[in-house]
Amino acid sequence: MSKQEKKDLVPTLRFPCFREMEPWISEPFDKIYDLKVTNSLPRDKLNYEEGSVKNIHYGDIHTKFSTSFNLKKESVPFINPSVSLEKIKLESYCQEGDMVFADASEDMEDIGKSIELVNLNGEKLLAGLHTLLARQTNDKLIKGFAGHLFKSGLMRKQIQKEAQGAKVLGISAGRISSLNVVYPSIDNEQQKIADCLSSIDELITAHTQKHEVLKTHKKGLMQQLFPPEGETVPKLRFPEFRDAGEWEEGVISDLANGVMGNAFKSVDFIEDGIQLVRMGNLYQGELQLNRTPVYLPKHFNEEYSRFLVKPFDILMSMTGTMGKRDYGFIVQLPESCEQLLLNQRVLKIVHKAKCVKGFLLQLLKSESLLNELYSLPGGTKQANLSVQQFKGLKAKFPEPKEQQKIADFLSSIDVLITEQSQKIVSLKAHKKGLMQQLFPVTDEVGA
Questions:
Q1: CB atoms closer than 10 angstroms to residue 303
Q2: In what order do the strands lie in the sheet with 314-317?
Q3: Which of 65-79, 344-358, 433-447 has the lowest mean pLDDT?
Q4: Which residues have C-beta within 8 Å of that of residue 347, sequence separation ≥ 6?
Q5: What CATH number is given for 25-183 in this structure?
Q6: Do the Cβ atoms of 125 and 55 come closer than 8 Å?
Q7: 3-state class (DSSP) for residue 18
Q8: Cα(179)–Cα(28) distance, integer angstroms
Q9: CA 125, CA 60: separation in Å to the nearest integer?
Q10: Does this chain's domain 185-242+399-447 share its CATH topology with 248-397?
Q11: Do residues 366 and 331 make contact, with C-beta atoms less than 8 angstroms apart?
């Protein structure tokens, strides 16, 4: 490595006690790690109830496992007792300090996503389907540091460069072995970085748990505030409405109309203009306009005014978004959003005079309404619902004053949930910024 390259391997932000130390070291992956054999057991060979050996599935690396993997805190499936493990070599069992990489992904952002095993709690663990298990040969990286290192831009860029494939991306053992691992030679500096980033991870985890508690709390309240199936009075009612009688039974069309978006042509798409709201923009219960944005000429807002949407409008995706049993496909547009046009298969739900808009939004998220929605033909994972099906959904509702009370109460919890979500986003952004400064940034890493 040239002197200039060595100079480049210094992070922008370095703790004061290490600022005069030597630049970081760059070494080939295969000089630090050996790759061990993993298994290819599918999900149907795993369970969460019984077994003597647990197994890491690559899908869980993508979706739920922490960077610093602590088996005491993670939900990991067992290998079914009926599966023979006699041929598994002792060295293939995971050890603390090992790295586990997901070697397949449909998304470049997640290819080679990894976890570091920092605490196995004395349990037996194997790395399974579509994983690479890497074990240090010389203890050059302290436990707790490597997990953060392989999430840094420096290492992620290398991993993504080595990925291969079209629809499904993969990274082979040979290609991951060709990476260059960049690290400070001083253990204390590694420890300082690990402690700093782990403390932020702990904050993110705590706020995420609080977020889940709030969502669970709201779900429980909604089950009480809306009548269960077969009944017309909720179990929990505000004092001033306890003698108000039964809720009216009807259908959604009694409360709202539905306007389906237009089938705009791709030949009209331009680089800038009025943005089109498509199904993919209704994601995880939020409007996410940065997901593959598409624009139409601004004069379309006059020609297609019927399909304009504005702040606080309620939208629902009608195709292919209902795989999870939640209401992530129902979104109320935020106050901050600008004028938008509605694409095909996205429904704008317009409340009628006898319905409070805030109540309608909560009703659409209620368990009884979701049960009704999922019972419809086409209401499964690959949903393809019609406007008429939507209008015919059975619904129960009280007088507008009680609707307003319910809407105000539940929306106040929504505010808390949103604030908590924003805290998590801010913490993640803070960590990302720190990561960019705590690890060297260079276009090429040489050994």
A1: 10
A2: 256-260, 346-351, 314-317, 330-332
A3: 433-447
A4: 258, 259, 260, 261, 315, 316, 317, 318, 387, 390
A5: 3.90.220.20
A6: yes
A7: helix
A8: 6
A9: 14
A10: no
A11: no
Radius of gyration of the CA atoms of the chain, in A: 26
Helix (H) / strand (E) containing 282: strand 282-283
**What fold is seen in the domain 185-242+399-447?**
Helix Hairpins (1.10.287)
What confidence score (pLDDT) does residue 82 get?
97
Distance CA 121, CA 137 (A): 22
Q: Give the closest residue to 280 by CA, choosing from 320, 236, 222.
A: 320
Q: How far apart are CA 59 and CA 54, in angstroms?
A: 15
Which CATH architecture group holds 248-397?
Answer: Alpha-Beta Complex (3.90)
The contacts of residue 349 (CB under 8 Å, 6+ apart) are 256, 257, 258, 313, 314, 315, 316, 360, 364, 390
Asked whether the predicted pLDDT for residue 332 surpasses 50, the reply is yes
Residue 220 token pair: 């429980």
Closest C-alpha among 381, 391, 414 to residue 286:
414
